[in-house]
Each structure stands twice: as structure tokens, then as C-alpha cells.
Amino acid sequence: MYFRNETKFMHIAIKITLQLCWALLLLYWTISSFTAKKVAQHEPVFKRFFFYWLPLIVAIILLGPGEWYGHSLLREQFVPHSNLIGIIALCLCVPGAILACWSRYLLGKNWSLSVELKQDHELIMKGPY
Q1: Would you say 14 and 86 are in contact if contact means Cβ atoms under 8 Å apart?
Q2: In angstroms, rounded to a whole number, what is the distance separating the alpha carbons of residues 13 and 95?
Q3: DSSP assignment of the chain, as one string?
Q4: How does pLDDT run across 29-83, given as a tens digit for each residue?
Q5: CB-based burial label for 121 (10 Å; 0-12, 13-18, 19+)
Q6: Terminal Cα distance for the chain, rounded
Q7: Contact 104, 110 (CB under 8 A)
Q8: Residue 55 and residue 24: Cα distance in Å, rounded?
Q9: Could you say which of 48, 66, 89, 112 would form a disulfide bridge with 71 (CB–CB 3.0 to 4.6 Å)?
Q10: Long-range contact set of residues 64-72: C-beta below 8 Å, sequence gap at least 24
Q11: CA–CA gap between residue 100 and residue 83 (Å, rounded)
């Protein structure tokens, strides 16, 4: 009985940590987006939708519905519901979030969601690019 409770707790801890990781990443990106430079030139709307938003919409359709994407159509097919999978997800999510925040920080005011030419655009030559 004790082992079951510990396993269940571990599962809840993994879920909370993953959600916190994503929430912190989104919060940092949202807050830092307010300091971005104004756009001088950007891609056409159709191209931005096709290459950036359409893949996100498809991913949401494949991953949702469910308990925060926990019981989705895609996941239910081939990924077992185990603590090992959760730990592997954490081992990928945490460094990925750190890399994303570090990249965003180094780009600073030149960062943009899609390909854009900013006013007073600079070439950033340091970081993971």
C-alpha cells in the first residue's frame, strides 16, 4: 500500500513539475515580449499561418482533449502511463525550457515569433545559434 501511494505521489509530482516548467517558460516569453523592437518588415500572413500556426493547430488536435493533454488520442496509442515516461519527459522538458529562455534572453529586443526584420536589427553572434 505504501509503495502505491509513493508511486502515485511521484506521478503527481512529475505532472506538477512539467506544468510548472511550461508555465514558467510561457510567463517568461510573455513578459519579455513587451521589450521587443518594432517590426520593420515581416512575412505574409498566409505564410505565417501555414508554417507556424497550422502545425500548432494540428498538434493541439492530436494531443487534446484530456486532462492537460494527459489522456489524448496520440498519447493513448503508444506511450505508456508510467513514471519512467514522466521522468524522461522532465529530462527533456527542463533543459529544453532552459535553452529556450537562454536563447530568448540572448536575442533580447531582436526576438520575434516568426521571421521578421526589426527596426535597428542586429546580428546576434553568441549563444546556441
Answers
A1: yes
A2: 18
A3: -HHHHHHHHHHHHHHHHHHHHHHHHHHHHHHHHTTPPPEEEE--HHHHIIIIIHHHHHHHHHH-SSGGGTT-HHHHHH---SHHHHHHHHHHHHHHHHHHHHHHHHHGGG--SSSEEETT-----SS--
A4: 889 888 887 777 777 888 888 888 898 888 777 776 655 555 555 555 566 667 8
A5: middle
A6: 50
A7: no
A8: 23
A9: 66
A10: 68/15, 68/19, 70/15
A11: 25
Which cell numbers hold the place of 8? Answer: 502515485
What length does the chain have?
129
- 64, three cell numbers: 487534446
The number of CA neighbours under 13 Å toward the Cβ of 13 is 9
- Please give the C-alpha separations between residue 120 and each of 36, 38, 41, 74, 117, in angstroms, as whole numbers: 11, 9, 12, 43, 9
